[in-house]
Write a structure and sequence with these properties.
six-stranded mixed β-sheet, 2 domains, 15 helices, Leucine Aminopeptidase, subunit E, domain 1, alpha/beta, Aminopeptidase, nine-stranded mixed β-sheet
Length: 472
């Protein structure tokens, strides 16, 4: 998407105004003026006028005392405007931003850009789901730097969505590593992709165990963005679950439809890659390391089995009771590996548990951890701002008791109680630093469009963590 500053409207393109009847009046005839007044008297917040050669939109929103909800309202306005423009096959939109609050304007543009995402790679009919809007031109005082930053973040979300939407027939662990390498080359962060022999040399038992059922080898990707004088003295490490497809392994997923969305089980990894891309593109002054353990989970070859004892990267002995609890096995090795950075904070993102999905659905992210309250509150604030909201679950020691094993150090499931939390406590075992776990199982992949969140991969986590780092 091209977003630029502009001086004036070009006949034939669509146009948006906000609370500016004087400006819009010069474009309307008497009948259209009467229509506008009638719509305003009916308290319509978004009014559309079809001028045949162009579309005009005027916004008269009810502003609340909750800025986060207002920002989301403007993103939804962006989606509605995009739909109308796309239906008319318009390629350019002009926004008169004279009366816009800058944050509201950026949210509107964000909604427009995110709504324009499509995944048409495998459609033979190139016209199918084609989006026409190519250029947004802004008249007003907003700086081009802000527009460029927003655009690059939205493009990073789109890249993350692409990764989630790719099938495992294309996106193996090795191909994910290749795409990470390409992104790092294009955007300027560093990357190292460890292959199976290197992973074996490191003795990453969790990642290797999950990979035993696959024909495709695992990878472990290490990304880093380190500016000259970062705000943080110690790096912040972001870890993403990279299960490129999850059958459940020998604990094969039993219910109808339970495998239908499992190409999305690497949405955490996609978010980390998208985040690194956005941070590097906008050259944020923070030192960030991204770690992605990747493999698929299948019941073939010499697949690991229930009652196996796995020795992890840090030496912990894990009793496997369910091979479908594989995400925590590969994340555990990555979380142990993160200790070498002596990090200020570690955050992981993972489509980890059905329990999290069942608890809050697609409406938010389940969060928990042992980091201090100020750090968690900063993350929650970012979540509210970008509408990727966090719901904090308790992280009490009692839940840790549920994963103790009679024959090993710990077991990889904790039973029927608090499944999302016991998964988090399993991961915490492998940390010795401030830690936050984000279970994105609910919002990472949706089966039908929800406004600017398009069907399939949503790219959740990229905007959340970018805002967190921008305001760090």
């Amino acid at each position: 998407m091209k977003i630029i500053n502009a001086d004036q409207f070009i006949k034939g393109e669509s146009i948006v105004f906000i609370n500016n009847d004087k400006a819009i009046a010069e474009y309307l005839d008497a009948n259209q003026t009467d229509f506008l007044k009638k719509q305003q008297s009916d308290k319509k917040e978004l009014i559309t006028i079809n001028n045949l050669s162009d579309l005009m939109f005027t916004l008269n929103p009810k502003i609340s005392d909750n800025n986060s909800l207002d920002l989301e309202k403007y993103r939804k306005f962006g989606f509605q405007i995009f739909q109308a423009i796309n239906a008319e096959k318009k390629e350019s939109l002009f926004i008169d931003s004279k009366n816009f609050n800058t944050d509201h304007l950026l949210a509107l543009i964000e909604g427009l850009i995110l709504s324009s995402y499509t995944f048409n790679k495998y459609h033979s009919d190139i016209e199918r789901n084609l989006n026409y809007l190519k250029t947004i031109r802004i008249k007003g005082n907003i700086r081009q730097k802000e527009l460029t930053e927003l655009n690059s973040v939205c493009q990073a979300v789109s890249f993350a969505r692409d990764l989630v939407n790719e099938p495992v027939s294309y996106l193996t662990a090795e191909q994910l590593g290749d795409l990470i390498k390409l992104s790092s080359k294009n955007y300027g962060f560093s990357s190292v992709i460890l292959e199976k022999k290197q992973i074996e040399a490191l003795k990453m038992g969790g990642l290797l165990a999950v990979n035993k059922g696959s024909f495709d080898p695992p990878t472990f990707s290490i990304m880093e963005w380190k500016p000259e004088n970062p705000k943080n003295n110690k790096p912040i490490v972001i870890v993403g679950k990279g299960v490129t497809f999850d059958t459940g392994g020998l604990s094969l997923k039993p219910t109808a439809g339970s495998m239908d969305e499992m190409k999305s089980d690497m949405a955490g990894a996609a978010a980390v890659v998208g985040l690194m891309q956005a941070i590097a593109a906008n050259r944020l002054n923070v030192h960030v390391v991204g770690l992605v353990p990747a493999t698929d989970n299948r019941p073939g070859n010499r697949a690991y089995a229930p009652q196996d004892i796995i020795t992890m990267y840090d030496g912990t002995k894990v009793e496997v009771l369910n091979t479908d609890a594989e995400g925590r096995m590969i994340l555990a090795d990555a979380l142990s590996y993160a200790k070498k950075y002596q990090p200020e904070l570690v955050i992981d993102l993972a489509t980890l548990t059905g329990a999290a999905h069942a608890a809050i659905g697609p409406y938010g992210i389940v969060a928990m951890g042992n980091a201090d309250e100020s750090m968690k509150n900063k993350l929650k604030t970012s979540g509210e701002k970008v509408h990727e909201r966090l719901v904090e679950f308790p992280f009490w020691d009692e839940y840790g008791e549920l994963i103790k094993s009679d024959i090993a150090d710990i077991k990889n499931i904790g039973g029927k109680i608090g499944g999302a939390i016991t998964a988090g406590k399993f991961l915490e075992h492998f940390t010795d630093y401030p830690y936050i776990h984000l279970d994105i199982a609910g919002p990472a992949y949706i089966n039908s469009r929800d406004g600017y969140k398009t069907q399939g991969g949503t790219g959740v986590g990229v905007r959340l963590l970018y805002d967190f780092f921008k305001n760090y």
